[in-house]
Recover the amino acids of this structure.
């Protein structure tokens, strides 16, 4: 019991520290572009930047991609959801310098399914994250192994 | 001025699958040139699409999207002959719009 409590406290302190950093970031020139979200280094920062609640894993969100990517500069990745009431879908690469790759707005006019190509610096977990209209955060993950990184010069 | 996008929109049932290939450098701002200087970031930030003039799709991108980005999405209720227009804006404020007809 004490063990868990201590862990919990340590964790909250760490998260609080990161959040303080996010609040100090300068605003971007483009009004709609969420700079804090794109500069987030981990899931806690990102969720905070989006003003949403804690993430939970869900089967209703899917991430598609290769198991092994030969070239990290071009990795085809797709995200989709079957849920109604999703307002945003995001693609995240955990070990990139900034996690967030793309954020798609889901509207009535389009299906909740998008595909693009991302850069990956190294083998990493890739996440599809859905934010619902009531600010719930659902995600699914998949590991993609990269044989040649795509971030170096 | 940037090169035109290649847009293909194909009907599948009562939906249309739109595939877009953009021409953009997508520089991350993390790489260094041969002199050791950081190459400034240059990437597409906002992408939007309209279906017969009505906005249906919007996305925000970071520098982690690949060079010459590919994008696929599905527009509901699109028929052959409808117009799909796609616009992007990069972090230097440059923009480009291209239009395609659903087939």
């Amino acid at each position: 019991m004490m063990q868990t409590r201590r862990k919990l406290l340590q964790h909250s302190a760490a998260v609080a520290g990161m959040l303080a950093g996010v609040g100090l970031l300068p605003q971007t020139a483009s009004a709609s572009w969420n700079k804090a979200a794109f500069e987030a280094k981990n899931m806690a920062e990102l969720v905070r930047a989006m003003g949403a609640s804690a993430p939970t894993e869900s089967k209703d969100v899917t991430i598609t991609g290769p198991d092994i990517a030969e070239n990290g500069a071009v990795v085809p990745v797709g995200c989709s959801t079957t849920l109604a009431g999703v307002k945003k879908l995001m693609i995240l690469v955990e070990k990139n310098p900034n996690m967030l790759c793309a954020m798609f707005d889901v509207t009535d006019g389009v299906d909740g399914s998008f595909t693009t190509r991302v850069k990956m610096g190294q083998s990493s977990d890739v996440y599809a994250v859905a934010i619902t209209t009531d600010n719930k955060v659902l995600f699914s993950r998949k590991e993609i192994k990269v044989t040649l990184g795509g971030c170096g010069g | 001025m940037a090169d035109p996008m290649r847009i293909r929109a194909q009907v599948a049932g009562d939906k249309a699958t739109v595939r877009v290939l953009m021409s953009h450098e997508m520089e991350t701002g993390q790489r260094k040139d041969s002199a050791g200087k950081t190459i400034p970031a240059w990437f597409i930030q906002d992408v939007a699409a309209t279906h017969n003039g009505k906005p249906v799709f919007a996305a925000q991108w970071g520098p982690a999207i690949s060079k010459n980005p590919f994008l696929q999405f599905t527009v509901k209720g699109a028929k052959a002959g409808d117009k799909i227009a796609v616009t992007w804006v990069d972090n230097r404020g440059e923009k480009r719009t291209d239009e395609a007809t659903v087939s």
Summary: The CA atoms of residues 31 and 37 of chain B lie 8 Å apart. Chain B has a mean pLDDT of 87. Chain B is about 0% helix and 50% strand. Chain B has one domain: 6-101.
